[in-house]
Specification:
It comes from Hymenobacter cavernae. The protein has 12 helices and 10 strands. The strands form 3 sheets. Strands 8-7-6-9-10 form a 5-stranded mixed β-sheet, with helices on both faces. Strands 2-1-3 form a 3-stranded antiparallel β-sheet, with no helix packed on it.
Length: 366
């Protein structure tokens, strides 16, 4: 039992640190997931929860940092009794969220491990039950973990350093792009290719007749069978990007966007866009016009035509603009505004508005 307890202790602490760091890698993505939960709770329990949307990024940073710090404290066996109860509180909270999402089909991805590992709601709930099981083993066998690796002032110093590092990682990611990009629009990906299946999709057809259920790889010609469900046999071969579409008043622009060299300024929402950077964007666009790489510039936004028209005149933005779904733009880049460099649909570069490049740097990527 001593060995089992120590394995559970190491797993529990390590998983909390891993989960926290994955979220701190992309705190904006975690904040978007929290906003999704707040909207669901507002529909089911009252509009009070909508008030938390304004502090979603702060909550993202705090909760993710707490996960890391609690994991470190557990591995150091520092203040074990208090740390174990704090861990239980978080685990019960997460288990409630994942069970609620799974049972009522509310949030299809809990974001437990960010975009690095996608889990279905029930898989997320089972993961939380597994963690609760680890917690129970450690809690009821603490006699095997009496040795503390950091006592007194030394323990406080370790926890302080862990807190500072965790918060620092998250704060930097908030002001720049994620350290590791796990989204479909990461640098190196071919958007056009990811919009198509990687192989021919195969399906099975679930049919019923007189209370009998049977699977068919080909749709049955016997009309006595009634269709129930179509299930993909190789879902991993399906398109990784299914909702990418760009348009303007003249029609669809998606295919044209994926041709040639394009410098795209993404303005997710004019209401929340950092306006102080647009002088730099304008200067960059003027530089790019002189480039021998034939780079065309454009803007994509999810704001309404009236809102964006007023905005572009306010910031003197004189480039063609197009529209896309807000969720798509948030997946494309965690910056509002942000830059994306495309070459025939391949993402060659992505830049936060704190890291605006010069034309020479863009040319080197093409």
């Amino acid at each position: 039992m001593k060995l089992i307890t120590r394995i559970c202790w190491a797993l529990l602490g390590g998983l909390f640190i891993f989960s926290g760091l994955i979220k701190l890698n992309d705190p904006i993505g975690t904040a978007l997931k929290l906003e999704e939960y707040f909207e669901v709770f507002a529909q089911d329990f009252g509009s009070f929860f909508l008030s938390f949307r304004s502090i979603a990024r702060t909550l993202s940073l705090v909760l993710s940092s707490v996960e890391v710090v609690l994991g470190v404290a557990l591995l150091l066996r520092w203040q074990m009794r208090q740390i174990m109860w704090a861990l239980l509180g978080l685990l019960v909270f997460f288990a409630f969220l994942t069970f609620y999402s799974a049972a009522f089909n509310k949030v299809t991805d809990c974001g437990c491990f960010g975009d690095f590992i996608k889990l279905t709601p029930w898989a997320s709930f089972i993961k939380d039950l597994f963690l609760l099981g680890l917690w129970a083993v450690v809690h009821f066998n603490q006699r095997y973990l009496r040795r503390t690796f950091a006592r007194g002032l030394l323990g406080i110093m370790y926890i302080t350093v862990a807190t500072a590092v965790a918060v620092g990682i998250g704060v930097r990611a908030l002001g720049h792009l994620p350290y590791f990009d796990f989204l479909p629009y990461k640098v190196g990906n071919d958007i056009g290719k990811l919009m198509k299946p990687s192989a021919q999709l195969r399906y099975k057809y679930i049919m019923t007749r007189n209370g009998e259920t049977k699977d068919f790889t080909d749709y049955p010609t016997d009309t006595t069978w009634k269709f129930k469900q179509m299930v993909p046999l190789n879902p991993e071969a399906g398109p990784k990007i299914t909702d990418f579409k760009v348009w303007n008043d003249e029609g669809d622009f998606t295919q044209q966007l994926l041709e040639g060299n394009r410098l795209v300024l993404i303005v997710q929402s004019t209401a929340n866009a950092d306006r102080d950077r647009f002088e730099q964007f304008d200067a960059l666009f003027d530089e790019v016009k002189k480039s021998r790489k034939n780079i065309s510039t454009l803007v994509i936004t999810s704001s309404s035509p009236a809102e964006f028209d007023a905005f572009r005149h306010d910031v003197n933005l004189a480039v063609p603009f197009y529209y896309a779904d807000a969720t798509v733009l948030k997946s494309m880049i965690r910056s509002n505004p942000g830059l994306m460099l495309l070459q025939n649909g391949v993402v060659k570069g992505k830049y936060h508005y704190h890291d605006i490049p010069d034309a020479a740097k863009l040319e080197k990527l093409l």
